[in-house]
Design a protein that fits this description.
The complex is a heterotrimer of chains A (258), B (216) and C (278). Chain A is α/β, with parallel strands linked by helices and 258 residues long. Chain A contains eleven helices and six strands. The longest helix of chain A has 30 residues. The chains are: A alpha/beta (258), B mainly alpha (216), C alpha/beta (278).
């Protein structure tokens, strides 16, 4: 698509999101958002870890801030959320990433989460809280995690970020270790394997919405309204171009490529 | 909290970088291109430095596992430390160059160990796929029945023998793959694009603090 | 029965290994029908014979995917080498290991087919950036994007690069990557060069990334070992490893089907038992 057209579309979509935030933040109209069972499952998982005395794990496979920046940053947001919950509950936790760049941010996020709950001494105890870099690339991390799941007592494992080709490997590793698993996957590659092997899954747009839901912040919730408006606009555009191309017979490439 | 410890100075830097990248994309041939290439170089340098952080973290954890004699892991931790040492020493001994430079030690390690290891791990997918087919692909309700139905025809479409059993199998499988599967994938991809835009909007206004190492 | 249930994973792994290995000793030689897509890819390359044009192959292949990509890449490159008066220019992008992998593939081809590096084929310097920016740079100014080839020789000294200045000087552009990067070509390169002929090479699992572009951006595509085997049949190449592997693939998929059916039968029995019990 030509630069001008894509910029215009980008600007219109951002205005829609801004409108959604305005509606919620300024006018105070909170949107009704359906339940996301996977988010509730995180609480259930932490409860499970507390009962069994085992650890909670949060992992970010493929934490590549160059290629998968939105998915990785979302995963780090969720890591902060899970860290706060784990700190509050007092369960031992393990946080793993597959990139040194994400490790630096993960350590800061987890430290801040534990500090905000007044549990800084837990963060400084490596037996209680450990933030680990397991290895880069799409091969090292799943292998290392599979090994950890077998050897350490991990009751609940939450994975977020781009998983990709190792979805089946990670899912089956969790099954073999009998670990309660939640996948928050803001992508579409191999998602069918995730749905088949993980206990709870949030995929695609739901995962990004979860990033807003966990904060309960008005502006963030308003951005979900904006994203819904964009989705409806896209559906309308698809139908319009479908009619133009099929019924009227005008090649739509002209509008898009020029 | 002092202003320099708040999120706002970091947000201003983030805004500046985002605008440079956006303008260099939408207005090519301007001085933003030079700024963009400088930023890319800085990020490569920072990425290289940060690798040292990862190396230190992995070394500390491995040494801890060895000291603790963590059951089932301490011997693997020793092996990991040994591999780190071998890679570091061969990299330093080589000096300039990259894993693609033929005739170097790193290239030899890469071509004869890493490459086959990577391939072997991907090949394990075959075993996992069969286990998942037996254990996970079970029709319990309408959605899972459609899942199994799709898996059945996709398997027969991918195998050359499918067409020999019945000519219709590859045709149905191809239709399922080309029409409903692609349609759903495209819809999910558009949803992901929308999700990324909303995430970016939240990031621009400073609501997404994880990128700056903070929590809500 | 209890033994089977307890060791089901081990049994599945053994059956999987047997299904793949048995065809090395007992080849089934199942017939393979050539699909329309394979024929389109073949015909597109065949049409270049005698034109003196070059084929540009842009590739980014991580090692994990080489097992599958090797066959399709081998088939396509072998075909290009067999065509009269057609040159080959390779450009490695993003995935550094791909350079060594494709180099090892070329070593199998250039000797038997008497091809000379620098005259009949060349691999230009590796572009470490991501695929999108690399394609954008090539679209802006192809010649200026590369100072040397992969061996460090300045491209002005390479006879093959004499008449190549822009992308328009190529007859066909083939983009070989496992999956995710294919939309980059459609978004970055295609709008700038809509009249160029593009071909895709990817894995069978990457089909979803090229399917929307087949027929409009990409003229044709090759995905998976099965299509590589079909391709080999078309020009009667001496290479039969893809053909051999198709037998293993067939047996593996039949085993997968059996596991699917067996799993569902067992699951259904359990549901009936539970309902009967309650």
């Amino acid at each position: 698509m030509a630069h001008e057209q894509s910029f215009a579309l980008f600007a219109v979509f951002m205005l829609m999101i801004a409108y959604g935030m305005y509606r919620t933040y300024i006018k105070g109209k909170l949107p009704h958002i359906r339940r996301l069972p996977a988010l509730e499952a995180i609480d259930e998982g932490i409860g499970r870890a507390l009962e069994t005395g085992a650890k909670v794990h949060f992992g970010v496979p493929n934490a590549d801030l160059a290629r998968y920046a939105p998915a990785t940053l979302l995963a780090l947001t969720l890591m902060g959320y899970v860290a706060k919950k784990a700190a509050k509950a007092g369960v031992p936790a393990l946080y793993t990433v597959s990139s040194p760049r994400a490790l630096v941010i993960a350590e800061a996020v987890v430290r801040e989460a534990y500090t905000s709950e007044g549990k800084l001494e837990d963060y400084e105890n490596p037996e209680k809280v450990n933030v680990r870099y397991l290895g880069m690339g799409e091969t090292a991390y799943p292998l290392a995690l599979a090994n950890l799941l077998q050897r350490e007592k991990i009751a609940t494992s939450v994975l977020s970020g781009f998983v990709g080709k190792n979805m089946l490997f990670l899912g089956e590793s969790h099954r073999e270790a009998d670990t309660f698993s939640v996948l928050i996957y803001p992508e579409v590659d191999k998602v069918e394997f995730g749905v088949a092997t993980f206990d709870y899954v949030l995929m695609a747009q739901e995962a990004y919405a979860a990033g807003a839901l966990i904060t309960k912040d008005k502006a963030q919730l308003g951005s979900i309204i904006g994203s819904d408006m964009i989705s409806w606009t896209t559906i309308a555009l698809v139908i319009v171009f479908l009619i133009i191309a099929s019924v009227l017979g005008i090649p739509t490439k002209k509008f898009l490529v020029g | 909290m002092a202003w320099y410890r708040s999120i706002y100075p970091l947000l201003v830097i983030a805004w500046a970088i985002v605008f440079i990248i956006l303008f260099s994309y939408y207005c090519p041939g301007t001085s933003f291109d030079i700024a963009y290439s400088i930023l890319v170089r800085w990020s490569i340098i920072m990425g290289s430095v940060v690798i040292a952080v990862g190396l230190i973290n992995i070394t500390i954890n491995s040494v801890r596992e060895v000291k603790k004699r963590a059951p089932g892991r301490w011997h693997l931790a020793i092996w990991q430390l040994l591999l780190i040492a071998i890679t570091l020493i061969s990299g330093f001994a080589q000096g300039k160059g990259s894993p693609t430079t033929p005739g170097t030690i790193i290239n030899w390690l890469f071509s004869n160990f890493y490459r086959y290891g990577d391939l072997a791990i991907f090949a394990l997918m075959g075993f996992w796929m069969l286990t998942a087919a037996f254990r996970a692909f079970r029709a319990r309700n309408l959605e899972t029945f459609l899942f199994v139905f799709g898996a059945f025809f996709t398997l027969l479409r991918n195998a050359p023998i499918g067409g020999l059993i019945w000519r219709g199998f590859p045709v149905i499988g191809q239709w399922l793959l080309s029409v409903p599967y692609i349609a759903v994938q495209r819809a999910l991809l558009i949803g992901i694009g929308v999700g990324i835009l909303t995430y970016a909007a939240r990031y621009f206004i400073g609501k997404e603090k994880a990128a700056f190492g903070r929590v809500e | 029965m209890a033994f089977a249930q307890k060791n089901i994973r081990r049994i599945i792994y053994i059956l999987c290994a047997i299904s793949l290995v048995i065809t090395f000793f007992l080849p089934l030689n199942l017939p393979i029908a050539v699909s329309d897509e394979t024929r389109k890819f073949y015909d597109t390359l065949e049409s270049l014979e005698g034109t003196g044009k070059a084929v540009l192959v842009i590739f980014t292949i991580p090692p994990a995917f080489w097992g599958e990509m090797y066959h399709t890449m081998f088939s396509a490159l072998q075909h290009i080498f067999l065509l009269k008066d057609v040159k080959l220019v390779l450009v490695p992008v993003f995935a550094a290991p791909g350079v060594g992998l494709v180099n090892s593939l070329l070593r199998e081809l250039y000797n038997p087919l008497n091809k000379t590096y620098g005259v009949d084929y060349v691999m230009l310097q590796f572009i470490p950036s991501m695929v999108g920016p690399a394609l954008a740079a090539m679209a802006d100014n192809f010649r200026a994007t590369f100072q040397t080839d992969i061996r460090g020789t300045p491209i002005d000294k390479l006879p093959i690069m004499e008449n190549i200045n822009t992308l328009d000087d190529f007859g066909v552009v083939i983009f070989a990557c496992p999956a995710k990067e294919h939309p980059s070509l459609a978004v970055v390169l295609y709008p700038r060069y809509p009249k160029m002929t593009y071909l895709a090479i990817c894995m069978a699992g990457g089909y979803m990334f090229i399917a929307p572009y087949l027929g409009n951006v990409y003229k044709a595509g090759l995905w998976g070992i099965t299509m590589a085997a079909e391709y080999q049949q078309l020009f009667g190449g001496p290479y039969t490893a893809a053909r051999q592997q198709c037998d293993g693939i067939s047996l593996y998929h039949i085993l997968g089907l059996l596991m699917l059916v067996l799993g569902n039968v067992i699951g259904f029995r359990e549901i009936v038992k539970k309902k009967g019990g309650s």
